[in-house]
Design brief:
The protein is α+β, with helices and mostly antiparallel strands and 375 residues long. The chain folds into two domains: 1-65, no CATH class; 156-374, no CATH class. 33% of the residues lie in helices and 19% in strands. The chain is built from 13 helices and 14 strands. The strands form four sheets. It has a five-stranded mixed beta sheet. α5 (164-189) packs antiparallel against α6 (192-206). The longest helix has 26 residues, at 164-189. The radius of gyration is 22 Å and the shape is globular.
Length: 375
Amino acid sequence: MIQIKKDDFRLQHAGFYNMYPIWNEVSPFGISSLNQIKETSGDVVLIDDYYGRIFTPEIYQIANLYGKDENMNYYIKGINIDVVDTLRVPYRKIPIFEITNFHHISALIKKIQLDNPDYEILLRGQSKHHELSRPEDEKFYLYGNKKVKEPSFLPSYLRSNFDEFFIQSMWTNQARILLNDFDYDCSTILTENEYKKCLSEINHLKNSPYFIHFALGLAQHYGMPSIGLDLTKTIEVATWFATNNINIDKNGCATTNPILDFNESIIYIFRCPRISVFSYNVIRPEVFPIGRPDVQDAWFGHVGWGYAKNQLASYLMCGIKMKQEFLNELPNNFDKKLFPDKAEDYFLDYFLKMKNKGTNEGNVQSVLNKIYALS
C-alpha cells in the first residue's frame, strides 16, 4: 500500500494512472464490523498499487477488504474436478485444479468460454509459480490471512527495473524503424500491386490504436521487457512453457530442457475483457513473415502499468497443476517450432542485427541485450 493526499492531482485522472475510479470497494465477505467504521478527518488515502484500488484509512483498518477465504466460495463454480491448491486475488478465491490430460483441459476451457461469451479466455503456462512480495500485515487487512497465496503477474519491465515510459517510447520508435525497413525490403521483392497492399497495411498498423501494444508485444516475444505478459489460446503452447525451462546465457544463446520438478508447474486461465487484449493474428499485416508471435498463437495485453502493476491477476479464474505426463502429449521438437531460427524469422534476424549494431548504449543497449535465440 502507498499513501497519497486526497487532493493529489492524480486522483482526478484515475484512468490515466490506471487507478480504479470507485473508492472503498469492499468484498461482502470481508466486512464483519461495519458499525465500527467511523469517518476520519485525515487527508490521505491508501492505494493498493498492485491493483489500483483506493481506500480511506478507516475502511482499511476495519475490513478484510478483498474477502476472507473461509467466507467465500471458489470463483469458478460447477466444475467437478479435484482442487489441490488455492490462490487469492481481490474479491475472488481461485481454485487450482488437478487434471490428467489435454481432453479434460479442453473441456474445462470450453465450459468457461460458454459461460463467459463476452470475454476472451486466455492461457499462460509457467514452470514456476510466483507470489507478490506483500507484507504480512497488509495480507491480513486485505484477506484476513497473513499466509495467503497471492499470485504475481508483474510485467517484465518491472522485473528488470526499467522505467515504464522509457520502455514505451523506445519500442514505439523501434517498431516504426522496423516497419520502415520492412517496407523497403518489400519494395524490392514484391510486384507493384503487392507492394501497394503491403504499404497500405503497414500504414494502417502505424496509425492503429493497437500500434503501441503491438510494438511492446512483439518485443516481449523476443525477450525484451514490456508492460505485458505472453498469453495464448493454444493448450500445447501453454503446456510447453509450463513444463520446460529456457536457459539463456550472457550472449543471448538459449537452450531448453524439460523441467524435473513439477511442484510449481502450472497453467493459469484468465477471463480477459476484450478491450484489454488482442490477438497478434488479428492485427498483423497479411504480408508479414511468420515469426514467434505467429507460432506461439500470441495474444497481447496492456496488463500491468501505472498503479495496477498486477492487473492481470484480477482476470484470473483458475489454474491447472501440471504433471510430467503432459510432456508426452506435446509434439516432438516442439521447441524448434515455437522458436524459429533467424533464417526463418525476419523479426529475430532484425532484432539480432540491432542488438549487435554497436552504436547503442545505456538502457537502450541493456534492453537489446535481453534478445535471445535458440542455439
